[in-house]
């Protein structure tokens, strides 16, 4: 069931910004403000998940958008979590061209029990997913693939991701993610700060944090902590105004806004490749009583139908 979306919800994207360092350095901190209301709202509207599951899916899409934009890559950034709880799989991906997708696969019984559950504000990832892990993958096709994995051992997806940055990447990172449904529309935003380590020497070694850098980092984190959830989600405050309001005393510069959109990568060609991998008997087995074989994209819910008896002969 589709519903009208107010125009101010449609501006989804990422505002990259940098916080200045002391003399001799370009920047001390990279920042990302993500506003994903329109994208999250249209994706979740197609799925109609129980609200508690939708909330975690929204946070995952915001997190994937934040992280994808801190990396220089040409391809697909994927966040995928697997667990043994109500949600079995949580997936959000963002291409370097700004196309976002997301979905959650969950246990029918446990999902039904969550229909009336209130939003977690933020979503309790560990309760919803049980024992499992969160993986980040950058896939650049022929140029290579990189993956990082962290166990789900914190209540919120934010803290699971922070643990990854602390233990695996050793990059100081601060994150604030929020999603909320108001008047039947989803709002979803995020703010990320990441310290850019100073490098030097002949091999560009990471230099220990200077006192001045430590001051800048701790001040930025303290300023970020003054931001309220409602303020982060407020779609009547432009992202650049919010970022300026928070960090102006440190010297903050905005970089160009990057548009994100709800866009799937499925196509009839791809679905035909799936069909081609099935034997004629399998095609008939998956078809309905009228020999119609229907394949539906788990991301965008687009459905394609074929006459299985035709394909079986072909
Ligand atoms: Zn699709």
Description:
By secondary structure, the chain is of the alpha+beta class. It has two domains: 255 residues, Hsp33 domain; 46 residues, CBS domain Like (Alpha-Beta Complex), CATH 3.90.1280.10. The strands form four sheets. Strands 1, 2, 8, 9, 12 and 13 form a six-stranded antiparallel beta sheet that branches. Strands 7-6-3-4-5-14 form a six-stranded mixed beta sheet. A two-stranded antiparallel ribbon has the order 10-11. The longest helix is centred in the N-terminal third of the chain and has 18 residues. It is globular, with a radius of gyration of 22 Å. The model has no long low-confidence stretch (mean pLDDT 90). Zinc ion binds next to loops.
Structure summarized in a few sentences:
The chain has 314 residues and is of the alpha+beta class.
* Average pLDDT for all residues: 90
Rounded to the nearest angstrom, the distance between the terminal CA atoms is 36 Å
H and E order? EEHHEEEHHEEHEEEEHHHEEEHHEEH
Residues in helix, %:
25-40%
Outline the fold blueprint.
Layout: E1 13-19, E2 29-35, H1 37-47, H2 51-68, E3 76-83, E4 87-95, E5 99-106, H3 108-113, H4 125-129, E6 132-139, E7 145-151, H5 157-169, E8 173-182, E9 185-195, E10 199-200, E11 205-206, H6 211-224, H7 229-233, H8 239-247, E12 252-254, E13 258-259, E14 261-262, H9 268-276, H10 280-286, E15 292-296, E16 303-307, H11 308-313
Parallel strand pairs: 5-14
Antiparallel strand pairs: 1-2, 1-12, 1-13, 2-9, 3-4, 3-6, 4-5, 6-7, 8-9, 10-11, 15-16
The structure holds zinc ion (ZN).
């Amino acid at each position: 069931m589709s519903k009208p979306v107010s125009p101010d919800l449609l501006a989804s994207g990422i505002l990259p910004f940098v916080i200045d360092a002391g003399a001799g350095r370009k920047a001390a901190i990279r920042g990302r403000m993500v506003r994903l209301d329109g994208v999250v709202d249209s994706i979740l509207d197609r799925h109609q998940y129980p609200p508690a599951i939708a909330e975690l899916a929204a946070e995952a899409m915001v997190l994937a958008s934040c992280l994808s934009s801190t990396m220089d890559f040409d391809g697909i950034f994927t966040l995928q979590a697997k667990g043994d709880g109500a949600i079995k799989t949580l997936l959000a991906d963002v291409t370097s061209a700004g196309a976002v997708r997301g979905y959650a696969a969950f246990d029918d019984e446990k999902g039904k029990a969550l229909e009336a559950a209130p939003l977690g504000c933020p979503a309790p990832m560990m309760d919803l997913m049980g024992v499992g892990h969160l993986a980040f993958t950058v896939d650049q096709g022929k140029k290579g693939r990189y993956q990082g994995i962290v166990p789900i051992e914190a209540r919120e997806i934010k803290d699971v991701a922070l643990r990854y940055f602390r233990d695996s990447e050793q990059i100081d990172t601060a994150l604030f993610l929020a999603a909320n449904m108001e008047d039947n529309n989803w709002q979803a935003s995020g703010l990320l700060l990441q310290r850019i380590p100073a490098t030097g020497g002949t091999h560009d070694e990471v230099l220990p944090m200077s006192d001045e850098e430590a001051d800048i980092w701790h001040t930025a984190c303290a300023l970020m902590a003054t931001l309220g959830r409602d303020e982060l989600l407020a779609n009547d405050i432009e992202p650049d105004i919010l970022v300026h309001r928070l960090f102006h005393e440190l010297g903050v510069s905005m970089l160009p806004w990057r548009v994100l959109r709800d866009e799937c990568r499925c196509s009839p060609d791809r679905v035909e490749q799936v069909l081609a991998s099935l034997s004629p008997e399998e095609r008939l087995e998956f078809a309905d009583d009228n020999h119609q074989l229907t394949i539906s994209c788990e991301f965008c819910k687009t459905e394609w139908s074929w006459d299985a008896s035709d394909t079986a002969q072909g």
